[in-house]
């Protein structure tokens, strides 16, 4: 019996995004997905940031006031380092 080629099927078990119990925000399972969602929010200055409670999970949110007022850069806040990936 020839087995069917399930290209892509079952590759990602958790496609649907869940929510974070700590921050009560939507969780994204990858940075790329969070970024894509942020870009769809036209007129909003949203960007992705890593949830500090769960590894490899992401949220999107508004830029903090400190960034908008120039006291800190977005990189200072959001660049949590990629060395632990
Ligand atoms: Zn969170």
Summarize the structure.
By secondary structure, the chain is of the alpha+beta class. 22% of the residues lie in helices and 12% in strands.
Task: Please tell me about this protein's structure.
It is a single chain. With 85 residues, this protein is an alpha+beta fold. 22% of the residues lie in helices and 12% in strands. The chain has helices at 31-40, 65-68, 74-78; strands at 46-50, 58-62. The protein has a two-stranded antiparallel ribbon with strand order 1-2. The longest helix has 10 residues, at 31-40. The N and C termini lie far apart (41 Å). The model is unreliable at 7-15 (pLDDT under 50). Zinc ion binds at residues 20, 22-23, 25, 51, 53, 59.
Series of H and E elements = HEEHH
By DSSP, the count of extended strands is 2
Give the overall silhouette. globular
Mean pLDDT: 75
Number of helices: 3
Strand content: 5-15%
Summarize the amount of helix as a percent range.
10-25%
Major sheet: 2 strands, antiparallel
Poorly predicted sequence stretches spanning 5 or more consecutive residues: 7-15
Which radius of gyration do the C-alpha atoms yield? Answer: 17 Å
Distance between the termini: 41 Å
Secondary-structure content class: alpha+beta
- Cofactors, ions, other ligands: zinc ion
| Widest sheet, order of strands | 1-2
Give the count of structural domains: 1
List keywords for this structure.
alpha+beta, two-stranded antiparallel ribbon, 22% helix, globular, binds zinc ion
